[in-house]
Amino acid sequence: MRYFKINNVALEKNIAIKTKKYMLLMATIFIFLGLSAQTTSAPVDSSIGIFSNALSLTILAVIGFLLILISVLGSVLKKIAFYKQQKENKSNTTILSIALLAFLSTLSTSVRADNLVENITKSVTIGVGGIDVLTFWVLLFVILIELIIVAVLINLINLQLASKQDDSVTVKSIPQEPSFFEKVNASVAIENEKDILFDHEYDGIRELDNNLPPWWKYGFYLTIIFGVIYIINYHISKTGKLQTDEYITEVAEANAAIEEYRKVAANQVDENTVTLLTDASDIGNGKELFMANCAACHGRLGEGGVGPNLTDNYWIHGGGVKDIFKTIKYGVVEKGMKSWEADFSPIQISRITSYIKSINGTNPPNGKEKQGDLYTENIVSPKDSTTTPIDTITSSTVVDTLSKK
Amino acid sequence: MEIERFSYDNKIVKNFAYATIVWGLVGMLVGLWVALQFVFPVLNLGIPYTTFGRLRPLHTNAVIFAFVGNGIFMGVYYSLQRLCKARMFSDALSKIHFWGWQLIIVFAALTIPFGITTGKEYAELEWPIDIAIALIWVVFGWNMFGTIIKRRERHLYVGIWFYIATFVTVAMLHIVNSFEIPVSFLKSYSWYAGVQDALVQWWYGHNAVAFFLTTPYLGLMYYFIPKAADRPVYSYRLSIIHFWALIFLYIWAGPHHLLYTALPDWAQSLGVVFSVMLIAPSWGGMINGLLTLRGAWDKVREDVVLKFMVVAVTAYGMATFEGPMLSLKNVNAIGHFTDWIIAHVHVGALGWNGFLTFGILYWLIPRIFRTELYSKKLANWHFWIGTLGIIFYAVPMYWAGFAQSFMWKQFTEEGQLQYQFLETVTHIIPMYALRSLGGLFYLIGAVMMAYNIVKTVKAGSLLENEDAEAPALAKEYHAHTNEHWHRWIERRPVQMLVFSLVLVLIGGAIEMIPTFLVKSNIPTIASVKPYTPLELQGRDLYIKEGCYTCHSQMIRPFRSEVARYGEYSKAGEFVYDHPFQWGSKRTGPDLARIGGKYPDSWHYNHMLEPTSMSPGSIMPNYAWMLDNELDTTNTAAKIRAMITLGVPYAEGYDKNANADLIKQANGIVENLKKDGIETTNNKEIIALIAYLQRMGVDIKSKK
User: Residue A399's pLDDT band (boundaries 50, 70, 90)?
Assistant: First the structure.
């Protein structure tokens, strides 16, 4: 009898140590996760990385759920060990164990690993459902570890429940259970404080010799491990992408997405295909955009100001629909007209162009004097066909030329 | 052992306490003012001295160095005497320290609104004041160490460890960051340029937070919380570990202010990992503070002093957890340059520094004036309205930060930026209004405290010299056989000072020396040339007006920023920037590649009245720049200073500089004339336009 009790206590201790280790392991894994999330996610639009993808969200939900399960199982195990020590109410344990087992059996079906694998194999070909392969396997590995821990915990609980018949120890006095905070911080109870009070004193201030709170201490270790792994990841194994590579990937992905979009989207125009729009709603929209963005320089009526008059027949860069479209799109940077390509979609530029054409000849008050050449509608500007395409964003080329110097 | 009789100097404590309150009110009032300028730009008043760019540095300097600074000295002078069982080393030094520091503050208030600034955040004061700060700081250290040396207590209490680390580190930070070459009595250029200047500046800036706003206040916390709660400190071992870990790790974290910039990747990564490692050491202080209150929580419900302190320590915990999170690159990509950072620093400033100061004042004033606090009820009201103020300040700013950041990064499906920059600003103006309300609440609370303390002081009488007695320290000391190993250094203040200094030197040295010496960290770009004399003058005006308080000059390598501002910034572009002007907040758009984007006349009109070119803009008018004449008498001196700093102007160029300046100015005048603007070549605006049109064009033409 006596022997068993000791054994029981030892077991409890053992469990406590194990739980601690599991927690440490889990936390390490999460740090890995955090790292790979940093690696894989472009910092911009999808700055939340793996948290924005449906598959990874599902996997993360499973991971979180298993974590909760583990902590529930862990506390159940502790409770059982505690009850067994006290031995005050047998039926309590039985009910608990039955409830527990029922709960577990439902759980174990819901987190069957093959469900997941099936889910995943569907999309293995394209970098696994939108998250990259490394992240995916790390996530899967986390689930595997969690499942093992769950199995071990269930095993331990079974062991405890099975051995209950042999046990008939009566415990006389139970020490008062420490409070939640005392347990978490491993502090000495206030009543026993005098045992750990230092004899020194400064202007009446005394000091206690409490333990470092374990969660604090292990948390500190974890951040140090994180730091080491981080540096290895980015600067030694170079598995993590540094900012320039991250940027190149981000732009490539965005350009691919835009290409995709353009394939299916209608109403695509460029300076070679643009035509005058006459629909009132198009002109109206063009006017709105003009008022918000162009009026500051060209005047609210197009009369000119910082920029040239847009209502007369004189144009510096051509007055045809295609010319105006081009001027807005690429700008004339040396003369102070910025490129609006990044601000407006092609269809928006064609609406602004059409609005500008619509105010031709309105002769508003305070019109700026004529600039450029007289433009008449039937002459087709020869410049239109010789546009040089400009890369949307040059990145690698600039970086390369710079680093070579 | 013979008992010695002596007295504590309470008068100096009282002086610092008064200064804390007065400067606190001034700093907060200026803060409220600049906050309202976001909502009502007319509050810039149309004169140079009260525009945001000049008042913002006044606000930060006032609350950091005047309010918190005096708060530190008040707490240190009170606690150090009692912890050492000795009067301050020299009453004369105490007086020099007090009046010297107030004089520095007055000089700051007299220079910053006049545009006399170095253009480096939190180190704006010009070189003569920098020297004065260094001298007064040494006086403080001298007085403190003198007191420690003649102490009647063998071992140094944890609070004093923090004071020592504060003294030695702030001295180091201030001296290294203030290396500058004087051009005239009130104008200097930073010794460092571009990336290196940025690294030094944020090593300083970050650790000003660490060693001016954090470590001295932790020292105060270790004295005043146990005193106010009458409880022993929770864990001596925790004090030891978190103290040494904190001062060692903090120094490294500066580069987290420069993530995704042109700073070399390895330095950025060091900034990230050391910030993450800082969580536990920072929280060590919070835990030790809060757990010291174990068994005294019933008192916390009753005692307003403890209430303030609990909120202060909790705010400290929140801010020091948030800081490392903001240092993760993917979080920083969202938060940097937005109001999230403003929220973050104000949780620290209003919560931690403000509330701890208030708690200490409410505790200390009745004691040295031998009376009761005039009104506990009013103090309670102060507590609640102050807390409400913090919430009203922080929550809208977090919201504004997220909202604006996501708007900046939002693309349409067609690949265009969804929002113009100005739209992202006007969208969050209601948040700015709410934030001002929070600030107003907080200020009202502080006024209530001032009234309460005036009443208390009137009711009591100051005990200028408080009698005390203690046995003299024995010459010989025999350590206990099983004493804690750390006790050894606790009885050796000089060793503690030296060891702290060595620890804080390591991080800075490892980050800075390679950045200065290894060429590959800042690849040279052949097309980047020094500024012309006119551009240099324009740049000095940019610094003078404090443009950097709202505009960054650092395009990060993100698709959204490259689309909005142009090719991302490269380290080699900044090699002639003494000082760097990367900025830390984008209330207005980035300007790194503003050059050539708009015509000269656009800038002319925009500076006269920003809303004429950008309707809805909250930028102040800079009409005086159109009338003020540019001072070109100092051009030669400026060129010579730059040559000393290694900027490759030709030998003797200082003599021809003004000729070139006028030539370039004439060109701009011609340009403006074409757009119907008549002006002359000797106006400030011409130099500013020259600088703006130069920015970022050296490598822009590649596109």
Answer: very low
**In whole angstroms, what is the distance from residue A152 CA to residue A146 CA?**
10
Give CA–CA dist B646/B193, Å, rounded: 10
Q: Do B232 and A293 touch (CB under 8 A)?
A: no
Helices (H), A233-345: 243-264, 280-293, 295-298, 321-330
Contact criterion met (CB < 8 Å) for B523 and A392: no
Task: Report the DSSP pairing between strands B3-9 and B180-184.
Answer: unpaired
Q: Tell me the pLDDT tens digit for each residue of A106-148.
A: 444 444 444 444 444 433 334 555 566 677 778 888 888 888 8
* Closest-CA residue of chain A to B603: A306
- 3-class secondary structure, B477: coil
Q: Do B420 and A219 touch (CB under 8 A)?
A: no
Rounded to 10 deg, the angle between the B91-111 and B69-84 helix axes is 170
Alpha carbons B356 and B149: distance in angstroms, whole number:
28
Task: Give every CB contact of residue B627 below 8 A, 6+ residues apart in sequence.
Answer: B683
Give me the numbers of helices (H) and strands (E) for chain B, helices first please: 29, 4
Measured in angstroms, the CA of B158 and the nearest CA of chain A are apart by 10
Pair B84, B147: CB distance under 8 Å: yes
Mutation site for A-interface testing, chosen from B248, B252, B273, B570 by largest number of A Cβ within 10 Å:
B273
Q: Return the structure tokens found at B647.
A: 């900027």
Tell me how far apart the alpha carbons of residues B151 and B83 are, in angstroms, rounded to a whole number. 9
Q: How do residues A180-212 score in pLDDT, each as one tens digit?
A: 888 888 888 888 888 899 988 999 999 999 999
Buried b (16+ CB within 10 A) or exposed e, B461-485: eebeebebebeebeeeeeeeeeeee
Higher pLDDT, A265 or A233: A233
Record: contact A224-B277, CB cut-off 8 A: yes
Give this prediction's pTM. 0.79
B6 alpha carbon, distance to own chain's centre: 39
Q: What is the pLDDT of residues B392-449, one digit of tens each?
A: 999 999 999 999 999 999 998 888 899 999 999 999 999 999 999 999 999 999 999 9
Question: Measured between alpha carbons, how far is B160 from B76 in angstroms, rounded to an integer?
Answer: 9
Among chain A residues, the shortest Cα distance to B609 is held by A296
Give the span between the Cα atoms of B428 and B592, in whole angstroms: 24
Residue B248 is predicted with a pLDDT of: 96
For residues A390 and A332, the answer to whether their CB atoms sit within 8 Å is no
The Cα–Cα gap between A310 and A294 comes to 11
DSSP A381: P
Name the residue with tokens 């600003």: B425
Q: What is the spatial distance between Cα B428 and Cα B542, in angstroms, rounded to a whole number? A: 26
Q: Is the dihedral of CA B547, B552, B553, B559 positive or negative?
A: negative
> Tokens 């993917």 appear where?
B330
Per-residue pLDDT averaged across B48-69, rounded? 97
Q: Do A345 and B414 touch (CB under 8 A)?
A: yes
Cα–Cα distance measured from residue A88 to residue A251, given in angstroms and rounded to the nearest whole number: 67
Q: Which amino acid is at A210?
A: N
Name the E strands within A156-301: 197-202, 205-208
Strand-strand pairing, B180-184 and A314-315: unpaired
Dihedral of CA atoms B88, B93, B96, B102 in degrees, nearest 10, equals -40
State in Å, rounded, how far the first CA of chain A is from the last one: 81
Across the interface, of B273, B410, B596, the residue whose CB is closest to A333 is B596
Q: Is B655 on the interface with A (CB under 8 A)?
A: no
**Beta carbons of B523 and A187 less than 8 Å apart:** no
Helix (H, G, I), strand (E, B) or coil at A274: coil
> Within chain A, how many helices (H) and strands (E) appear?
13, 4
**Residue B283: Cβ within 10 Å count:** 22
Asked if A8 and A85 touch (Cβ cutoff 8 Å), the reply is: yes
Are B358 and B442 within 8 A, CB to CB?
no
